[in-house]
Write a structure and sequence with these properties.
It contains twelve helices and five strands. The protein is an alpha+beta fold and 393 residues long. Helix 11 links the parallel strand 1 and strand 2. Helix 2 packs antiparallel against helix 3, helix 3 packs antiparallel against helix 4 and helix 3 packs parallel to helix 5.
Length: 393
């Protein structure tokens, strides 16, 4: 299993769960201190060489267990038997063997087998060598220390595994929720795409057909009406293209890149054509567009285009007289202003739903821009500001 991590939304895992090697280091550090103390005692007491060899054997078992847990445990346990056999106080060597057993169990090895090895050597020494100094009480303490060492290491290991299992389940639950949310979003996209295709696409196609039929049925001298119908059919084709682009976005979702999603959509380069399309249907537009080439990030350019489009649509529906369009760079920002005289505000009564201005505000905010709409002294004014890179204004 991997290392446990802190979860800021829940309880924090204990240090020994997050850093399991810390307990190993502590166990081996204590064993090293005990071994050092025994070596110093052997030297100061002038112990015979069998005693010294027994202590060295115990230290070797501790060191070996770092790489070979089972072999090191057997050697350290055998050292406890040897040090008892030569008449040396076995308490410190027993402690080293128990610490090795603790570390072995903590690594996930079989705790019962490890405890059995240590207990066998302890009991063997007690039974074959005529008992320990201190009698049966010391022997029982040695046996229970072996059981406690193995049980403690195993319990800590089990607790850590349980904690890691809970974390994995939590991560799995989060991932499952994200997958479910993505699935529902995808289903909703497909539902919207089907509705657009079945309803909007069908109706626009019928509209284009009827416009074509009306154009054919016009008399020869109705040139102005014919031009109006041609413009209407062109707008219908544009709606079809835009609808297809939206359908593609809805169906593919995140599988297409940002640039690919924006490429079919007219941006700043299409502002002049946009103005011309409104002029062709009778709106007096006075444009002033001055943006350096390549100055605006594509997604911001799309939003600028849509703001001008919606503002001119409102001017055509509700306005009186000319509409001024000013799009320029000012102090490192993109400033868009569309202004016209109105007989009644676009969000008031009439055939409009008022959703156009809501959509305009949502578009501007999605590009981290700022939108101001006011209608003072009979004039309706839309003003938007953007960072060219889409940063917060």
């Amino acid at each position: 299993m991997g290392k446990a991590q802190n979860n800021h939304d829940g309880p924090v895992a204990p240090l020994w769960v997050r850093r399991p090697e810390a307990l190993h280091l502590v166990a081996y550090a204590v064993a090293a201190l005990v071994f050092t103390g025994q070596i110093v005692a052997v030297i100061l007491r002038g112990s015979d060489w069998p005693t010294a060899l027994s202590v060295l054997l115990a230290g070797g078992g501790v060191a070996l267990s770092w790489w070979r847990p089972w072999a090191g445990l057997v050697v350290a346990s055998a050292a406890s038997f040897a040090v008892t056999a030569v008449g040396h106080d076995p308490l410190s060597v027993w402690m080293m063997a128990v610490l090795v057993l603790f570390a072995v169990a903590l690594r996930g090895k079989q705790p019962l087998a490890g405890t059995g090895i240590v207990a066998a050597f302890f009991l063997g020494a007690f039974m074959t060598l005529g008992g320990f100094r201190g009698g049966a009480i010391v022997g029982a303490a040695a046996l229970f220390s072996a059981i406690a060492g193995g049980a403690t290491g195993a319990a800590l290991r089990i607790h850590r595994d349980h904690w890691l299992t809970l974390e994995e389940r939590a991560e799995s639950a989060i991932a499952t929720r994200e997958i479910e949310a993505t699935r529902r979003v995808t289903e909703e996209r497909l539902r919207i795409a089907r509705d657009l295709h079945d309803v909007v696409g069908h109706q626009v196609a019928l509209l284009s057909m009827h416009l074509g039929a009306a154009e054919i049925g016009l008399p020869e001298d109705a040139e102005s009406s014919r031009q109006a119908l041609v413009s209407a059919r062109s707008s219908a084709r544009t709606v079809v293209v835009e609808t297809q682009r939206i359908l593609t976005l809805l169906r593919l979702g995140d599988d297409i890149s940002h640039d690919e999603a924006l490429r079919p959509t007219p941006a700043l380069s299409g502002l002049e054509s946009l103005v011309a399309s409104f002029e062709s249907i009778g709106l007096d537009v006075r444009p002033s567009i001055d943006i350096p080439p390549g100055f605006v990030e594509p997604s911001v350019g799309v939003t600028v285009y849509r703001v001008v489009q919606e503002a001119l649509t409102n001017a055509y529906r509700h306005g009186e007289g000319a509409a001024t369009v000013d799009v320029r760079e000012r102090d490192g920002r993109i400033c868009v202003t569309v202004e016209n005289r109105v007989g009644h505000p676009p969000h008031g009564s009439g055939s409009g739903s008022g959703l156009g201005l809501v959509g305009m505000r949502e578009r501007v905010e999605s590009s981290s821009g700022r939108l101001t709409i006011d209608s003072d002294d009979g004039r309706f004014r839309v003003h938007a500001e953007f960072s060219p890179l889409g940063a917060v204004v």
